[in-house]
Specification:
Radius of gyration of chain B: 25 Å
Number of helices of chain B: 2
Distance between the termini of chain A: 29 Å
Shape of chain B: globular
Strand content of chain A: 5-15%
Number of helices of chain A: 35
Largest sheet of chain B: 8 strands, antiparallel
Helix content of chain A: 40-55%
Shape of chain A: elongated
Oligomer: heterodimer
Strand content of chain B: over 45%
Chain lengths: ~900, ~425
């Protein structure tokens, strides 16, 4: 974070220029009595000033015999006649050098300034610096740039324009002081100086620091800028100075920063900052009427906008920077003996995006609080991972156990989650939580890095990450429980970023860039296969709008990574093409409206913000339009909606990149902030927007009450499609799905294309639903359906299942109607000699002869599989049945492994070259 | 290009706002639900009584009688209706023991079943019930001295049922915890012995409301050695009731099941044709009216009961020549099956048919047995026909217009009567 101080006069002040001139300006000294300070000594020091004409002295706040006095500063200022040019506001605890006044008058004249401040040295020290003027952040927090105990070696002896000077010694033009009605009497010294400086600047005056005017300051006035009163005063100064538009975003920001500062300090076992923040707001609420009066006074003389204040303000929050430095310093000191890293953190905290990133990351982590504390929900499309070896086996061997099973590839996310669980020490439950929370942070970081790659540097690019995670499209998908949408959204900005290149990259980096593009293409396709096409499309759009950092070639490389999803799509083309399987989602009109508000003004932006904002807007609303008005398959729908959020996030990153008074920037910023707020609301449930519930826990009775090692299947039916976990099939007058009685896992979320068994089950349900089948249990038994669960509002099936003979209702769940089928066959083996699942296959007691498997027939099973109606039998003599990898699935999985190795190889090669 | 992009953004936003979403995916349409072709029968195999189940069908098909009691199946027997489309199955052959229930899976929709409960000195019959309703009522029981009245609650299904039983007698609404939240477990025949619970009541009406599951309700009245069985039916506002001829005491019982007053009107289809509003009256809350029919006519006749609120109507025949009861019919139909209807050897039996329409009809009676006998009759509108029955498994009555049919038989001091089963799609 760089402090911006303009250097107007690079040379050391030359006081000899004016002191003896007969036309020298007339100065009146307003000496404010400070409790505990020796007033007569102060008068003596003022009397020794080398300045002609000798300044007249008025004591403020005390009575003396030798000089005139005034009750208040405001009265003293008002009582000054027009023959006086300048007022020297001086505290009685200040001891100026004899040339201090002359130096200030000289420089204020030379620089055509209106307000000048002295260099304050701490009295009683070896010239320890107290203030040389300073900057503030947007919240009025002073930033002197001085180190604790820094000695004056004339290192700051240049006259500079500063944000503010302290009120202990300041020279102000008389007319300006009268226009501003002096210092705010309610404010403590530093805050008063800040307030006065800001008002002076807004009135059109320049504020400078004059280091050649040295004043020793005893600080009996308490002018160290600390304490709750000073904090309240800074807040009042901010409320007085800023325009309503600025206050609209500064106040919420300030509250957020205060909150973070308080929390961080509490973490360091300091409670006072929290109290100070609270006091500051209460104090200002109490004094709100007088603040409003102050604003009215300022309004009368205001000549400049808030930009004039912004010019002299430090980026980000000083408070967060300080606390961040302290926290990271403590952290790094554990293994950073020489403090090399700690020194670097200063730069890190000074970068414009870092606090945006931290705020975004904290917001996202807060949005995942329920996941951290109570675990992941098991509902919708979000279900536990299988044990890692089983998941990897299933992905590699291509046996999909969803529904009644099929010999087609499972969703590639099964492989990715299996691999991650394996890396997470095989603990798939913890891996799921860590991956979910981690992905949300990765998404935020990815959005920031994507903006950074394009050239956006502001904090908005990280805040945009929240919109990526919970924006217009992902909010809809995640709200329906789509964990994969969350994961896909988190990876997507990285994949798009991989297709963008830094300017001036070297030839040696090409392999690395291609490697990253390939690797991220594979990764994004593993979570949402259709997303693999987005990087190349985004690059094409970005280039069409004038962007120069997009590489179509890298986009194509990322697209090649999409092969990771090919086997799944080839095995279930309906996932892409069957619109009847799409989710019924309707975007609230607020989202497109806000995206338009954030993106359209980008037309007036300059350079990269314009390209990013417009590309984001087109991408977001274009994909949202297609997703909500065109009937497409669920895979395409998912990709469109995730891309819509990415586009919205891009628009937000551009909109919040910089704040100015330009009306387009203001409108875009309002739209961007509103999108961020809407997204935060969308994830406000503490589960990153995932719905609450645990279907597996509710259906655990199937496992508990089963007298078999494998509890069989559950037929789950409802007229409300949303209540059924995972993908559903259309039944006669209702929706249904066949679930694993031992608990649904992520691999069972997507149902494969219907096979013969699914058709026969459909026919059985038709018959049962017609009410003519007195023994529905017998009819369902062959499908290994041990339980029927009806969820949601009652419908005709409830009535149909009353007059029947073999599905007794069991009052196991108050929220649903449960029927037990004790005639159900075992999924593998027989009821007397059941086989149990063993990895992807089944194992049990070896028997002579065939062993039935209640799955859709698939010739890939061994040993000696043969079809038996819709299902199959295998030879039981080995005591095992398995579905080894073969055909397209095997080829594609090897191809994916090759792609990953190629990508890693490219990255490693590029790093070695570097 | 930038302006084009901005225009596209706005166009997309407007498009999202105004373009309709595609039709949401729909599940398949709800199939037309049908009632499974079953009948549920009360079975008594105790105290010298035995039950035969008569099944009449329009097809030669397979069926099954499953008997159940105390939460389980006690036995099962497959049967075939044969060339005559009829069969009589002794319940004991299907494993029936004691007071139990029988579930008859019928070979087709146009099928009906009925029970004949015989002992050396009594007989009773009733059509079996098919469609359980959430509310069913009957009237006519008595627990006065020498009388025993039981409710038989049959739950042939897999789910438990819960009932609220409201019993109204000459003493008002009976309050007894045994009538509240009566649970009938699956595959169970539960008997509520009202003689024990509320002895000494002359006139009883029962209203059963099923709050969960499904149950079929029969009343069983025993006076001396004679027994009558009749079904509880869903209350309605329009009833038809053919009545056999003879000078024996006969009563038309009408009970209201609602809480308010109900006006009723009884039309008489007598030898002189229709006599509207032959009897009118008002029933108070859960009130009962008894109309002596033998004083009206001694020939076969019929009655139509029209009420302003839900009521049930039963025929009650009690004399030295036996005891019989049956429920009135809420519908008329062109085809009726009379399972078990026959003229017993040494006794007599007759079918009573009402032409409820405004046109003259031709009525065909066919005895269902190995050697069936068919007879045709012309029946003017709003007139009643009584035909003697011969030995058979039952009768099928077809007509060219809407009719209502019942049957009765008598053997010594035993008597029985049962309404037929209407077949709408014949």
């Amino acid at each position: 974070m760089a402090v911006r101080m303009s250097q107007t006069t690079p040379q050391v002040a030359d006081t000899e220029l004016v002191v003896d001139s007969p036309d020298a300006p007339r100065v009146r000294v307003l000496l404010t009595a400070v409790a505990g300070a020796d007033l007569s000594a102060a008068l003596a020091v003022v009397g020794r000033q080398v300045y002609e004409p000798a300044p007249e002295v008025v004591v403020v706040g005390a009575e003396t015999e030798s000089v005139s006095s005034a009750a208040s500063l405001e009265e003293a200022i008002a009582g000054t006649d027009s023959s006086v040019d300048y007022l020297w506001l001086l505290h009685s605890d200040a001891r100026p050098r004899p040339d201090a006044l002359a130096a200030m008058v000289s420089e204020i004249e030379r620089n055509e300034a209106s307000l000048a401040g002295s260099k304050l040295l701490k009295a009683g020290t070896m010239d320890e610096l107290e203030s040389v003027g300073g900057a503030t952040d947007v919240f009025g927090e002073p930033y002197s740039g001085l180190d604790e105990g820094e000695i004056d070696l004339q290192q700051y002896d240049v006259v500079r324009e500063v944000a503010f000077v302290q009120s202990a010694s300041m020279l102000v033009r008389r007319d300006l002081a009268q226009g501003l009605k002096g210092l705010d009497p309610l404010l403590p010294p530093v805050a008063a100086g800040l307030d006065f400086s800001q008002r002076a600047r807004l009135a059109g005056g320049r504020v400078i620091s004059v280091p050649s005017s040295e004043v020793y300051h005893q600080a009996r006035c308490g002018a160290r800028g600390e304490g709750r009163w000073e904090q309240a005063g800074r807040l009042r100064a901010m409320l007085t100075a800023y325009s309503p538009l600025t206050l609209l975003w500064v106040i919420p920001y300030d509250i957020l920063v205060s909150l973070l500062d308080s929390l961080a300090n509490l973490a360091l076992l300091r409670w006072r900052p929290a109290v100070r923040h609270g006091y500051a707001w209460l104090w200002n609420l109490y004094h709100l009427p007088s603040t409003i009066r102050q604003r009215r006074r300022l309004h009368a003389v205001r000549a400049e906008g808030d930009e004039e204040l912004f010019r002299f303000q430090a980026n980000g929050s000083v408070r967060l920077r300080v606390i961040g430095e302290e926290l990271s310093g403590k952290l790094l000191s554990i293994f950073d003996d020489d403090q090399a890293l700690a020194r670097r953190t200063r730069r890190v905290w000074g970068s414009p995006g870092i606090w945006g990133a931290i705020i975004a990351a904290i917001l996202v982590l807060l949005s995942a609080r329920s996941i951290v504390f109570t675990g992941m929900p098991n509902v919708g499309y979000s279900f536990p991972f299988e044990p890692p070896t089983v998941a990897l086996q299933r992905w590699f061997q291509g046996w999909n156990e969803a529904g009644l099973g099929a010999g087609s590839a499972v969703h590639p996310a099964v492989g990715a989650t299996g691999l991650f669980s394996l890396l997470w020490f095989g603990a798939e439950g913890a891996a799921r939580t860590v991956l979910t929370v981690g992905l949300s942070v990765i998404g935020v970081a990815g959005m920031g890095r994507l903006g950074g790659r394009i050239g956006i540097r502001g904090p908005g690019r990280y805040l945009a990450g929240i919109v990526l995670i919970a924006g217009p499209g992902t909010a809809l998908l995640v709200g329906r429980g789509s964990w994969l949408a969350l994961a896909g959204a988190a990876i997507l900005p990285w994949a798009v970023r991989a297709a963008l290149v830094r300017p001036g990259y070297s030839r040696g980096e090409r392999f690395g860039l291609a490697g990253w593009a390939l690797l991220l293409g594979v990764l994004v396709a593993m979570f949402s296969p259709a997303l693999a096409v987005v990087p190349v499309l985004a690059v094409l759009l970005y280039r069409a709008l004038g962007g120069d950092r997009g590489s179509i070639l890298l986009g194509v490389v990322a697209l090649i990574g999409g092969l990771a999803g090919f086997a799944f799509v080839a095995g279930d083309p309906g996932w892409i093409a069957d619109p009847s399987r799409r989710l019924d989602l309707e975007a609230e009109l607020l989202w497109p409206a806000l995206v338009a508000v954030a993106a359209v003004p980008a037309v007036a932006f300059g350079g990269r913000s314009r390209e990013l904002g417009l590309a984001g807007g087109v991408l977001s609303l274009g994909t949202l339009l297609v997703a909500t008005t065109v009937a497409v398959g669920p895979g395409i729908q998912e990709a469109l909606l995730i891309t819509s959020s990415l586009g919205a996030a891009m628009a937000v990153a551009a909109a919040l990149d910089r704040v100015s008074r330009n009306v387009f920037h203001i409108v875009a910023a309002i739209g961007g902030l509103a999108l961020v707020v809407a997204s935060v609301i969308a994830v406000g449930n503490g589960r990153l927007g995932l719905p609450a519930g645990d279907v597996n826990a509710r259906l655990s009775f199937a496992q508990t009450l089963s007298d078999q090692p494998d509890p069989g299947r559950i037929l789950f039916a409802s007229v409300d499609r949303e209540l059924i976990p995972g993908e559903v099939r259309s039944g006669p007058g209702f929706w249904y799905s066949v679930l694993d009685g031992s608990g649904t896992t992520l691999d069972e979320v997507w149902l494969p294309e219907p096979r013969t068994g699914d058709d026969e089950l459909s026919e059985a349900l038709d018959e049962i639903a017609s009410g003519t089948d007195l023994r529905p249990g017998e009819r369902l038994a062959g499908f290994a359906i041990s339980w029927v669960v009806i969820e949601g509002p009652t419908f005709f099936l409830d009535e149909v299942l009353v007059p029947q003979l073999d599905l007794p209702p069991v009052p196991l769940d108050p929220d649903s109607r449960v029927y037990e089928n004790d005639k159900a066959v075992a999924i593998a083996g027989t009821r007397d000699q059941p086989w149990v699942s063993d990895g992807v296959g089944y194992a049990g007691e070896a028997v002579d002869g065939p062993v039935p498997l209640a799955f859709n027939f698939d010739a890939g099973w061994s040993p000696d599989v043969s079809q038996s109606g819709w299902s199959m039998t295998v030879d039981g003599s080995s005591g095992m049945a398995n579905h080894p990898a073969a055909g397209l699935d095997l080829t594609m999985n090897i191809a994916v492994a090759v792609l990953v190795i190629a990508g890693l190889g490219g990255i490693v090669y590029a790093r070695r070259g570097r | 290009m930038k302006y084009l992009a901005a225009a596209l953004i706005l166009a997309f936003a407007v498009g999202i706002a105004i373009l309709p979403s595609p039709e949401p995916a729909q599940h398949e349409s709800q199939p037309a639900t049908a009632v499974p072709p079953i009948s549920v029968c009360p079975i008594v195999e105790v105290g010298g009584r035995s039950t035969n189940v008569a099944v009449l069908s329009s097809v030669n098909g397979l069926g099954r009688l499953t008997t159940f009691a105390a939460g389980g199946e006690t036995g099962s027997l497959e049967f075939r209706t044969g060339g005559s489309g009829s069969v009589v199955v002794p319940a004991v052959d299907a494993g029936a023991i004691g007071v139990s229930g029988g579930l008859v899976e019928l070979p087709s929709d146009a099928t009906a079943a009925g029970v004949l409960v015989n002992s050396p000195d009594s007989m009773a019959s009733e059509s079996c019930a098919d469609i359980p309703t959430s509310q069913a009522a009957l009237t006519g029981g008595s627990t006065a001295s020498g009388s025993a009245f039981e409710l038989q609650l049959l739950n042939p299904y897999a789910g438990e049922a819960t009932l609220e039983v409201t019993v109204t007698t000459d003493a008002g609404i009976e309050s007894d915890s045994r009538f509240d939240s009566v649970i009938v477990p699956p595959l169970t025949s539960l008997t509520l012995d009202l003689t024990t619970i509320i002895p000494g009541r002359e006139s009883i009406g029962v209203d059963v409301e099923t709050t969960r599951g499904s149950v079929l309700v029969f009343g069983r009245q025993t006076i001396g050695s004679e027994t009558a069985i009749w079904r509880a039916v869903a209350p309605g506002q329009d009833w038809w009731l053919p009545v056999p001829g003879g000078a024996d005491p006969k009563q038309l019982l009408i009970s209201s099941v609602g809480s308010g007053d109900v006006e009723y009107q009884v039309d008489l289809y007598g030898p002189e044709g229709l006599q509207e509003a032959f009897e009118t009256g008002v029933l108070g809350s859960r009130g009962q009216a008894r109309i002596p029919l033998d004083e009206v006519t001694t020939t076969a006749a019929a009655f139509r009961i029209i009420a302003t609120g839900p009521v049930v109507a039963d025929l009650w025949m009690q004399s030295e020549t036996g005891l019989a009861a049956t429920s009135a019919s809420p519908v008329d139909a062109p085809v009726w099956l009379l399972p078990g209807a026959a003229g017993p050897a040494g006794g007599s039996g007759s079918a009573v048919v009402l032409n409820s329409g405004l046109e003259e009809v031709t009525v065909t009676l066919r005895s269902l047995t190995d050697q069936s006998l068919t007879r045709d009759f012309t029946l003017p509108s709003e007139r009643v026909l009584s035909v003697d029955l011969v030995a058979a498994n039952g009768y099928r009555i077809e007509s060219t217009g809407p009719i209502v049919a019942m049957w009765t038989s008598q053997l010594g001091a035993a008597r029985t009567a049962a309404l037929g089963v209407p077949i709408q799609d014949g």
